[in-house]
Amino acid sequence: MTGAAWATGLVTLLGIGVVFGTDAFCALVMRPALARVDEASLTSVMGNVHRYGDVRMPAPGVAGLVGSAVVAVLAALADRGSAAVLAGIALVLLVVWLVLYARISAPINRRLTAAADRGETPADARALQAGWDRIIVLRAALQGAALLGIAAALVLL
Q: What is the pTM of this model?
């Protein structure tokens, strides 16, 4: 049972790691860089970033979220309570991340992508990006904490 939990945990770590790395990069690099460009460039760049990100990022996100649940269950079945709790905490953190993404980030992503498709710059482009930026550090922190939780769970398996 712990072998299956370990294998699942490694895939889970990779999935969470991809999303964490992406969000951390956006918080550390993209956010300040975009503050220095004009609204048309911001719309074009971020609209196209979201076009690909919103299609390609669900795979590692699902691997992290579902994997956390599977690790929690397998750890519990293997009578590894502490590991199960840590994986469960990681799962909760990822669900919170998903709610933030779905309610705040995704609608902004869709607006910027649609504007980029039309070759337009929304009058509120800077405000849209500010709304997205407002939660990117929190998103990165949630993913980072989930990553640590799964890593700690694997140590305890």
A: 0.96
